[in-house]
Structures are given as structure tokens and as C-alpha cells.
Write a structure and sequence with these properties.
mainly alpha
């Protein structure tokens, strides 16, 4: 299975995002995505991968790219 890259997905799905994205970026606190965009991203990840937001939030309190990718891959 191909590894999922959250920054690549964000660049494709949300071309208006101009903020620099790193593995340590928090999608909400760093103002990369607003709440609606985050929900769209989560919905997309649930469709194309095994990502389950409830399971993710049991272990993680924030939407940090590094943690999300670790959970996915």
C-alpha cells in the first residue's frame, strides 16, 4: 500500500492554502485548514484509507501531520 502524504493531499484538495506545511504542523493551531476544510480532509481520508477519526482522537488530541501520517501508515 502506498504511504499517504497529508501535505500532498492538502496541496491537491485545497490549492488556496499558502501556509508552509511541515510534518510538525498542527492543521488547526497553525491555521492551515479551517474547521470545514478539516472535515473535508477527514472525510476524504476515511474514504481512501483506513482512517477513523474516533480511533485517532482516542490517542491524539490534535491534528498534527506527523501523528496523522503515523496513524495512517
Amino acid at each position: 500500500m502506498k504511504k499517504i502524504s497529508i501535505p500532498d493531499i492538502i496541496k491537491k484538495k485545497f490549492p488556496s492554502v499558502k501556509t508552509k506545511i511541515t510534518k510538525e504542523s498542527d492543521l488547526i493551531e497553525d491555521n492551515i485548514l479551517d474547521s470545514l476544510e478539516l472535515m473535508n480532509l477527514i472525510s476524504y481520508l476515511e474514504e481512501v484509507s483506513k482512517f477513523k477519526v474516533k480511533n485517532y482522537l482516542k490517542k491524539n488530541k490534535k491534528f498534527v501531520i506527523k501523528k496523522m501520517e503515523k496513524f495512517l501508515n
